[in-house]
Amino acid sequence: MAESVKMFTVNIVTPDGVVYDHHATLLVACAVDGDLGIMANHEPIIAPLAIGEVRVKRTDNPDHQDAIAINGGFLEVNDNVASIVADSAERARDIDVSRAEHARERAQQEIKAAEARHDIDEVNRAQVALNRAINRINVSKRQR
């Protein structure tokens, strides 16, 4: 008798709509308190997410992990459904690397200018933009 695959549904939505919706055996997300690993039959949980990568091991291609760049949001797991609501999210295959590299350079320049003006709020905003750009660049490298 074949062993049944324990799976759950992963969906990621942004204000622009559904970015990701697949069955999976494993989800790894970057929560503000550290990485979370989610498998089928996980206890209900709600966790705030940091800027980071979400990795999903799909049931239809067990040798491959999908990578998605997430820019904050929340993860909710309940009844074998893991839902991520994010400000923005991009699958590795959809990331425009050139655009992300330009965003990184622009953010680095803004940090230097804000530091010269001693504008802490602007430094913080530019640092968030830099983190988002670096995350997108790193996730794009996972594309196979």
UniProtKB/TrEMBL annotation:
It comes from Lapidilactobacillus gannanensis. This is ATP synthase epsilon chain. Produces ATP from ADP in the presence of a proton gradient across the membrane. CDD domains: F1-ATPase_delta. It is a peripheral membrane protein. Gene3D superfamilies: ATP synthase delta/epsilon subunit, C-terminal domain, F0F1 ATP synthase delta/epsilon subunit, N-terminal. Belongs to the ATPase epsilon chain family. InterPro entries: ATP_F1_dsu/esu_C_sf, ATP_synth_F1_dsu/esu, ATP_synth_F1_dsu/esu_N, ATP_synth_F1_esu_C, ATPsynth_dsu/esu_N. Residues 8-89 form the ATP synthase F1 complex delta/epsilon subunit N-terminal domain. It is found in: Cell membrane. Keywords: ATP synthesis, Cell membrane, CF(1), Coiled coil, Hydrogen ion transport, Ion transport, Membrane, Transport. HAMAP family: ATP_synth_epsil_bac. The keyword Lyase does not apply. It comes from the Bacteria. Residues 97-126 form a coiled coil. Residues 94-141 form the ATP synthase epsilon subunit C-terminal domain. Pfam families: ATP-synt_DE (PF00401), ATP-synt_DE_N (PF02823). F-type ATPases have 2 components, CF(1) - the catalytic core - and CF(0) - the membrane proton channel. CF(1) has five subunits: alpha(3), beta(3), gamma(1), delta(1), epsilon(1). CF(0) has three main subunits: a, b and c.
